[in-house]
Specification:
- It is built from 5 helices and 7 strands; from the N terminus they run βββαααββαββα.
- It is of the alpha+beta class.
- The protein folds into 2 domains: 138 residues, Alpha-Beta Plaits (2-Layer Sandwich); 65 residues, no CATH class.
- The strands form 2 sheets. A 5-stranded antiparallel β-sheet has the order 1-4-5-3-2. The protein has a two-stranded antiparallel sheet with strand order 6-7.
- The protein starts with a strand and ends in an 18-residue tail after the last helix.
- The N terminus is likely disordered.
């Protein structure tokens, strides 16, 4: 399972926190480095650290732990190295690996002049006592984008053919949208007239009920069912009439 590993070049720590591997006597000449370019932005770096350097760093880690270890029967800083190695083998191994991988990754990036834009993902770590340490780290870099031709293009703009009927339709629509309604004092409404009506439902005795509603309708626009529009068109301005209206089932 890949480990998340922070790139020391793309994510520099604060001045108080040294880079991984700082202080180690390790440079790119000690390492075997190979680089696989999987995509224009994806790189996988394989690194091998010689066993001699791994063993030296393990001894340094053991000395570091010994200097601060407190074990019963021994004074601080006086614990035999063999006891430290047996008692803290897992801890000193992890401390050595952290420093080795961090320093090797830093040096490998510098040797290849790479500046990752993502955290490195540690993969395929191979570690056995007294053998070379190998690992791979995958990371992203800024892709190289090749810009194509930026000039010399010819653009043809098609000429739209506008028919006279289309012009008339637009003008009519503008007139309707911006027209001012003029009130009529007399006469019956015709198509496209705006009427304001009050419609009241009558009961079986042809007496008015409380169900009266006011409507503004444009004749012929489909705002009302045909029977209602036809009935309205028989009335003069201000006239009242009674009508039998058939409503559709839906």
């Amino acid at each position: 399972m890949p480990w998340g590993f922070e790139s020391p070049l793309s994510h520099p720590p604060s001045p108080q926190a040294p880079l991984p591997g700082d202080g180690m006597n390790l440079d790119a000449s000690h390492l075997k480095i190979s680089l696989d370019e999987q995509d224009s932005w994806r790189r996988v770096m394989s690194v091998t650290i010689p066993a001699s350097i791994v063993q030296e760093e393990e001894r340094n880690a053991a000395k570091h732990i010994a200097s601060r270890a407190r074990l019963k029967g021994f004074r601080k800083g006086r614990v035999p190295m063999k006891v430290i190695e047996n008692r803290f083998s897992g801890t000193l191994r992890q401390e050595a690996l952290d420093k080795l991988i961090g320093s090797a990754y830093k040096q490998a990036l510098a040797s290849k002049e790479l500046r990752p834009i993502s955290e490195g993902e540690l993969e395929d770590l191979q570690y056995k006592p007294e053998e070379d340490l190998t690992f791979r780290i995958a990371f992203d870099v800024e892709p190289v984008i090749e810009v194509g031709r930026l000039s010399g293009f010819v653009v043809e703009r098609p000429m739209a053919k506008i028919e006279e009927e289309q012009v008339d339709e637009v003008l009519t629509r503008i007139q309707e949208q911006n027209g001012v309604w003029q009130p009529l004092e007399e006469g019956k409404p015709v198509e496209k007239d705006l009427v304001s009506v009050t419609i009241t439902r009558l009961d079986e005795k042809l007496e008015s009920s409380d169900e009266s509603r006011e409507y503004d309708l444009v004749i012929g626009s489909g705002d009302a069912i045909p029977d209602i529009e036809a009935s309205i068109c028989t009335l003069q301005v201000g006239e009242v009439g009674d009508f039998d209206i058939s409503f559709p089932d839906d």
